[in-house]
């Protein structure tokens, strides 16, 4: 039996800008995981504990993985297929069937509540690692990342693919996304081996560490019921020209802030990291107002205020509109006080830390 895992992710900073090539984000892998078990079988099966009443049978027609009926596992199948295509191009014989069993602790097991930890990215990475391992291939993080991007593109998923980078590399990363226009053109003219082996325009993934003395605290706020109404009320006040100007300005100031944050991590400069988080939060607030969006909900604002009252820095993480806020603390006592204040305000402190190394 092969076992593979992939960690979830949270954005420390740079969300919204990172979808544009050349604009950085800092992303954390967190110690909640997606687990995949793979074992040879007489018939192909995909099973996920999140769909306990569903087992999907799969087979091959030629070199294509096929299922008999529509199912919710297109991303899993695409991940299997892209690895098999890569291995076939290497000359590896693909002639056995296997069973995949998938389990996640990225969401709440009892309620199924999603915390925004990047489950689609983690399942892509974990399936790719499992199939590569089954065929005794090296699990180089960059190879895993590239295959994961290709798997998601095949089913028309979009975004920056930063979650795939975090799940592939682990720890703290500075991430610059691939130029998607270049990627689209390259896919039309390159084989899968050429895609994997060549440099990708714009892509940069660099491992970082948070400065000494900074620790992570994450709070889950749920989704704000009034978000849609807030967005609708603001959208009508803005025209497209104003939004484009807001976006261009945001990209500029965000890149400057993120470059400072990355340098601060490299220099082990705790104060500069704290300042960059404060700046990035303000930039997101201004961006949201200018675009007619809701990123920092009232509950996320409360999360930040309660952290700041104890001397920490905090901001929303990811798309916002609910989900998680992220806080950097400087002592266990400070962390405990903030977690208690959050809990008293209906914010759930999540037992997350940075996954610096793969669990395997």
From TrEMBL:
Annotated source species: Streptococcus acidominimus
Keyword terms, alphabetized: ATP-binding, Kinase, Nucleotide-binding, Transferase
EC numbers: 2.7.4.2
One of the GO biological process terms: isopentenyl diphosphate biosynthetic process, mevalonate pathway
GO molecular function: ATP binding; phosphomevalonate kinase activity
Domain GHMP kinase N-terminal stretches: 90-171
Associated pathway: Isoprenoid biosynthesis; isopentenyl diphosphate biosynthesis via mevalonate pathway; isopentenyl diphosphate from (R)-mevalonate: step 2/3
Lineage: superkingdom: Bacteria
This protein's encoding gene: mvaK2
InterPro entries referenced in this protein's UniProt entry, alphabetically: GHMP_kinase_C_dom, GHMP_kinase_C_sf, GHMP_kinase_N_dom, Phosphomevalonate_kinase, Pmev_kinase_bact, Ribosomal_Su5_D2-typ_SF, Ribsml_uS5_D2-typ_fold_subgr
Cross-referenced NCBIfam families: Pmev_kin_Gr_pos
Domain (GHMP kinase C-terminal): residue spans on this chain: 262-346
Protein name per its UniProtKB record: phosphomevalonate kinase
């Amino acid at each position: 039996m092969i076992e593979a895992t992939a960690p979830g992710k949270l954005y420390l900073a740079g969300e919204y800008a990172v979808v544009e090539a050349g604009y950085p984000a800092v992303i954390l892998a967190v110690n909640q995981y997606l687990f995949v078990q793979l074992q040879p079988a007489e018939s192909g099966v995909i099973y996920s504990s999140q769909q306990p009443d569903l087992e999907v049978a799969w087979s091959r027609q030629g070199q294509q993985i096929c299922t008999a009926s529509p199912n919710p596992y297109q991303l899993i199948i695409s991940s299997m297929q892209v690895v098999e295509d890569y291995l076939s191009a290497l000359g590896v014989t693909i002639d056995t069937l296997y069973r995949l069993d998938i389990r996640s602790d990225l969401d709440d097991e009892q309620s199924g509540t999603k915390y925004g930890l990047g489950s689609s990215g983690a399942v892509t990475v974990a399936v790719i690692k499992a199939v590569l391992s089954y065929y005794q291939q090296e699990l180089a993080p960059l190879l895993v990342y590239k295959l994961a991007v290709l798997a998601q593109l095949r089913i028309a998923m979009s975004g920056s693919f930063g979650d795939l980078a975090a799940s592939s590399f682990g720890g703290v990363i500075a991430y610059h996304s691939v130029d998607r226009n270049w990627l689209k053109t390259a896919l039309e003219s390159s084989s899968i081996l050429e895609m994997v082996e060549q440099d990708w325009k714009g892509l940069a993934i660099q491992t970082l560490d948070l400065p000494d003395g900074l620790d992570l605290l994450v709070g889950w706020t749920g989704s704000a019921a009034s978000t849609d109404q807030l967005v609708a009320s603001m959208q009508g006040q803005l025209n497209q020209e104003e939004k484009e100007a807001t976006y261009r300005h945001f990209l500029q100031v965000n890149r400057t802030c993120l470059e400072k944050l990355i340098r601060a991590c490299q220099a082990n400069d705790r104060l500069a990291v704290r300042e960059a988080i404060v700046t990035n939060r303000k930039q997101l607030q201004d961006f949201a107002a200018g675009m007619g969006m809701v990123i920092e909900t009232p509950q996320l604002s409360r999360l930040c205020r309660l952290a700041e009252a104890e001397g920490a820095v905090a901001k929303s993480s990811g798309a916002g509109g609910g989900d998680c806020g992220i806080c950097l603390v400087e002592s266990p006592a400070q962390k405990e006080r903030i977690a208690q204040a959050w809990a008293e305000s209906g914010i759930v402190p999540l037992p997350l830390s940075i996954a610096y190394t793969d669990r395997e």
